[in-house]
């Protein structure tokens, strides 16, 4: 009985939503462990397309229980809107979802604080999703945040809320920001939303551990990607949570001893949204071709994604900090018809080869990618569901990625549909999925 973590091996948007949706049928529970509605998981089921920001995509499988863990930050309005969208599509959300009473709550003033810090002239903007994610985590770590359990408890909520509201009003005043937040109105609307959420809030750490003890299988779903992790990403151009595998434990209350495998998701190339270093970025027509063919525009903000070539040193690093057992390579079909495919196989800084990911941005910015080129495949791979039927050049490309990253590629995705996926026979991934 394997409990697995599935998470992004790059800068997010690797296609985790589709993979988690597909794998969910092998699990009883799917748990999200960090981030908030900054994530955007697009799942295509037949002619229906779902963009899920907070709720794990496992919810699209009837009977699968989904958990939003304590490591997630929740905007109640975004949550209720997403629940409503799913209810309208006929999904039994209320029968499937469980929300941690320890998860922190996002308020409108968190967005205001984010605007202040992103807009400061003396600071390089991170290019955030403007959802108030960072400031909510700041309050969590600053030990003044408001958790779901507090929101549901009228005896403590008012006091905590007034303190936090005043704290933000002081910030607004200090920065000369017009404070048009209606603190009273917001308080009342949150109390009303709390009542709609109350029935699905519980101690999800207990629920998950009890489920595991009863022999149920849990899939842990990471949001964003390892290179956006607060500790291991390209700091400060990161999100504010622990997207790497360790976050699955701290963000759910399930101990590491109960996790049996870790699967990394990577595109067959690489993208990033927002600012920050990106060694293998392609600014030319080939990068643009990938953007158009891969429809690389943000599912939350609509921003065009920055595109580039598969970065093997980056993947070796994310494999190290996560301990990947196997890799899922998505969007292979986007490279169909590219005559020659580049792979960054090494980094050079100041003329010297580097074998690790530098911790400082100043060095990251100086990286010269060393490329090797592989022949592309002229024929389409879309819809291919058997590994053997892939063009030889595509198989060689996958083998090259395995060699350069040191990780097995256990699954390849050849289109957005559930059916357009190949799990390789005999792979470690196949065994872990059971
Ligand atoms: P924040 O998470 O809104 O604070 O944004 C911090 C950085 O993470 C920005 O560069 C965002 O573009 C990036 N980011 C946040 N969520 C996602 C995601 O789901 N996919 C890709 N990038 C993301």
Describe this structure as you would to a colleague:
By secondary structure, the protein is of the alpha/beta class. It has helices at 16-23, 76-88, 93-96, 108-119, 133-141, 148-151, 154-174, 183-197, 204-213, 246-250, 285-293, 312-322, 361-366, 392-405, 428-433, and strands spanning 4-8, 29-32, 41-45, 48-52, 65-68, 73-74, 97-100, 104-105, 201-202, 218-221, 261-267, 270-272, 306-308, 310-311, 326-330, 340-349, 352-354, 368-375, 409-413, 421-423. Strands 9-7-5-2-10-1-11-15-19-20 form a ten-stranded mixed beta sheet, sandwiched between helices. Strands 14, 16, 17 and 18 form a four-stranded mixed beta sheet that branches. Strands 3-4 form a two-stranded antiparallel sheet. Helix 4 crosses helix 5 (133-141). It is globular and about 65 Å long. The mean pLDDT is 94. Bound molecules: inosinic acid (IMP). The site of inosinic acid (IMP) has 20 residues, from helix 5.
